[in-house]
Each structure stands twice: as C-alpha cells, then as structure tokens.
C-alpha cells in the first residue's frame, strides 16, 4: 500500500461522526468548531517500541494504549474527549499489523466519542504519537494546583499491577492475563474525571507512579502530604509481592497505572463514596494534604518508609545534578 492508500483504508473514518468536525482526515488541516462556553484541552504522548511497548506486542493493544494514555490526561483535567490526531512511524507497510492497530485505536475512540481528524505516516523505527483534544466547560478544568491543607487524597482502581506485569515479563516469569491486560490495555478513567468537576480541587493521572505524580500536585499547590501504605488499594498479586519482600516500589513508583489521583475537601468525601458506587469503581482514600512541604509515607507499623519519591524518568542522568 502507498501512504495514501494506508490512510484512506484504515484511518480516514476512525471514531464516530461529530457535528463539530467541519473537515477531518484528507486535507492539509482539520477544521474543528469549539462550542460556546467550552475550553479546549490538548495533550500529546509518544510511544516508542522498546521503551513503551515490546517489539512483539499485539498491534491491537498498541493501538488501544496509544490513545488510552492521552485519554487519561484528558480525564485528569475533567475534560470530555473530542478529537485526536495520529503520527505513525512504521518500519514497513504491513497491512495485517496496521489493520489490528487501527482496530484497537478505533474501538477505544468510539467508546469515548472521539474522532480521528488528521495525522501523518512515515517510514522509520516503530513509534506512535497521538495528540488528543478534549472539551471542558470554561473555568471547570481540574488542575494540579488546587490542593489545600486538610484535604483527602484519593486514588482510583488498584496500584502496581502494570509494574508487576512488566517486572515478571522482563524476568521471564509467567504473567497472569489480567496483569498483562493492565499493562497493555489500560482503561482511562474518563467518566470519573468528568464527574469530579466541582468536587476535586486537584487531580493528576498516574502514569509514572503514585509518589512521583502526587509530588507534582504538591509542588504545583505548594503543600505537602502524608500517605498511609496500609490504605493503598492492591490486588492480591501485588499484595503478595509486597508482603514477601517489603518492597513498596510497585504501588508507589512503577508507573503505567493510568488511574487518577485527586484531592477533595473533607465535606466532599461522602460525595466521592457515592460516586464510587455509581461508577462501580473503587475509590480509596490513601492520605491527607498538609501545609508542611514534602511527602511522608507511613508504613503499616507506624514508621516512615524511606524511598525516592520519583517515578519513571526518560532522562534521569540529565537531572541528577539538579537535585
């Protein structure tokens, strides 16, 4: 297939029709209408073979995850998904691979009402860059900078599953299908983000680990926090590893959870509890915001856990001298 055959056959009609798309795939630019009273939220992520996914990863899963990570960013702002653009770099024009990739991407896009409106295809080492666009009522976006002392810290879902799947894969050990699915096909918490508008004061998605990502909220809000390890929501797989090794890095720093971490005033805690029931999603209070700077992590025995509060970093050596 030529580049244009590839685009026309697999990417020209991904996602549902939207009335705010004046012109989509096929021209030099997409033309999009932003509804009155809405603010545009934009994020972009690149996934590279050998860094974000294994070279032999199911292309349908790559398609899913390449969009899911951006949808998770939109969720963290309380935004409603609208449009996406895709830049796909391929070592060859493998029609079976492209078909499967488009299936995974398109299924998730349709589930969230998102339309693919443009992009680019090139030849080279396998990588996928997706830019997502969402809409949020003006003034309603949830930022990282709104946390205040006395507020409760919540997380959605469970922590450390994707990290454990990766650890076992790299060690050549068996990986439970449920764990593998958490790594390759994360579920962005879009509905939760939307429902938290007006309830959460600050929010972030957990892509690089709870300790590091919560640290971004603390820095932006000029506050500190205390986490209680015994409150962390863990599956039996992760809990068994922690119990056997006393290694808390899986739920705190392994990354790829794509859950939401958010802060709420005490008066809103009952609202969050009801929201958990409404959405059928576990929402767990794991700590509190305080005025003193820094992050303290309290062990189940009451002692302090000593560990670096840093998640995944693509260029760690470049930052060593600045810490």
TrEMBL record:
Catalytic activity entry: thiamine phosphate + ATP = thiamine diphosphate + ADP
Record-given protein name: Thiamine-monophosphate kinase
Residues covered by the PurM-like C-terminal domain: 148-296
Residue stretches making up the PurM-like N-terminal domain: 26-136
Record-linked NCBIfam families: thiL
Residues at which Mg(2+) 1 binds: 45, 120
Domain of life of the source: Bacteria
Entry's EC annotation: 2.7.4.16
Organism: Allochromatium palmeri
């Amino acid at each position: 297939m030529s580049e244009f055959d590839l685009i026309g056959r697999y990417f020209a009609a991904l996602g549902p029709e939207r009335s705010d798309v004046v012109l989509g795939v096929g021209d030099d630019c997409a033309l999009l209408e932003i509804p009155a009273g809405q603010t545009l939220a934009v994020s972009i992520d690149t996934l590279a073979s050998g860094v974000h996914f294994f070279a032999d990863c199911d292309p349908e899963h790559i398609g899913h995850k390449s969009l899911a990570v951006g949808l998770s960013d939109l969720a963290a702002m309380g935004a409603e998904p609208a449009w996406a653009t895709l830049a796909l770099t391929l070592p060859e024009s493998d029609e079976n691979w492209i078909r499967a990739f488009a299936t995974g991407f398109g299924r998730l896009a349709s589930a969230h009402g998102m339309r693919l409106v443009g992009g680019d295809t090139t030849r080279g080492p396998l990588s996928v860059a997706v830019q997502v666009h969402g809409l949020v009522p003006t003034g309603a976006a949830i930022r990282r900078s709104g946390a205040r002392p006395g507020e409760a810290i919540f997380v959605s879902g469970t922590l450390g599953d994707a990290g454990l799947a990766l650890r076992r894969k790299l060690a050549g050990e068996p990986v439970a299908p449920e764990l593998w699915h958490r790594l390759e096909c994360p579920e962005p918490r879009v509905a939760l983000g939307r429902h938290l508008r007006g309830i959460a004061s600050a929010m972030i998605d957990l892509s690089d680990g709870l300790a590091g990502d919560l640290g971004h909220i603390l820095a932006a809000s000029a506050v500190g926090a205390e986490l209680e390890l015994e409150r962390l929501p863990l599956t039996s797989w992760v809990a068994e590893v922690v119990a056997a090794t006393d290694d808390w890095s899986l739920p705190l720093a392994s990354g790829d959870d794509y859950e939401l971490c958010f802060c709420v005033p005490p008066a809103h805690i009952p609202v969050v509890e009801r929201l958990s029931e409404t959405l059928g999603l576990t929402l767990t209070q794991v700590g509190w915001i305080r005025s003193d700077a820094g992050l303290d992590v309290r062990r189940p025995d009451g002692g302090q856990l000593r560990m670096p509060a840093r998640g995944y970093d693509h260029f760690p050596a470049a930052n060593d001298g600045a810490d």
